[in-house]
Amino acid sequence: MFLNFAFSRSSCDGKILCPCKDCGMGVCVTKMEAYNHLKVIGFIKGYNNWIAHGELSNYNEAISNSENTSIGVSNGTNDMQDLVHDVFGIPQGTNELNREGGIPVSEAEKFYKLIDDSQQDLYSGCKNFSKLSFIIRLLHLKCLGKMSNKIFNMLVELLREAFPEAMTNLPSSYYEAEKLMNSLELGYEKIDACPNDCSLYWGSAEKRTSCETCNELRWVASENDPTREKRKIPQKVLWHFPLKPRLQRLFMSSKIASQMRWHEEKRTKDGCMRHPADSPAWQTFDHLHPEFAKDCRNVRLGLASDGFNPFNNMSSTHSTWPIVLIPYNLPP
């Protein structure tokens, strides 16, 4: 585990204010002493926001934003309309498409359908949920509760029987709800993989039936299907969330688009380490790739993996290994 923290410069002859429990930001120590304090003692209780390291203005801005946004709680129709506008790249407050803009008819139909669902109350007099926000909330609960598709379908059917007026025109199964997520560009792709993690059956290798590296067969064998050609169940699957649409959505939202430039336009530049943009590695990359660096909108990504099992020789039988890309442009 790595311990990362930021320091504030002070007038203590090159020393810093230590944010550990004992010192309480009131004692000047060397960086190594502060590092040892934090490893042994820990941060001051409640010191969750680094407000004493030159980020006070950003902290106040973050606090004001957090007061206006409640995670996991719908605040009405506007949130869903903003979501739909961000997906289609249409300016906020515009519910009419430009017919001369070359937008495909199918895309226009999807836009208007989603806008209608985001504006329509779940039932007469309901102000907390629209049709769209309710089904998204149900899908959110499915993910948090690790609910199977079968149980989700049973829950939707129960709600449909109990509240027929509210469930009108809503998806009747997880399959239909999943298509809604795809229309919001929140879906995923499944790519067959070699069971030994040698390669993916993707691109030019999409039609292969065995791995060209280890010759392991692509499909699962069973008593009823020893040749593996009937059901064609893959031995391992990669669940892929397409990268390009998600990067595009970062710039479709006016709020997040400005934050993607934060590292260049609003970051405090006083020599302290608070963000990857302050690191020598970032500056070295800028020096080696000046054309990329001169446009602050260019996206810098970090890759993180929670372990991987390349040769399938680990004792763990667990086979789910998440790999995450993190955009470094955004503020902490």
Automatic annotation (TrEMBL):
Pfam families: Transpos_assoc, Transposase_21. Signal peptide: none annotated. Residues 2-55 form the Transposase-associated domain. It comes from the Eukaryota. This is Transposase-associated domain-containing protein. The gene is LOC113728900.
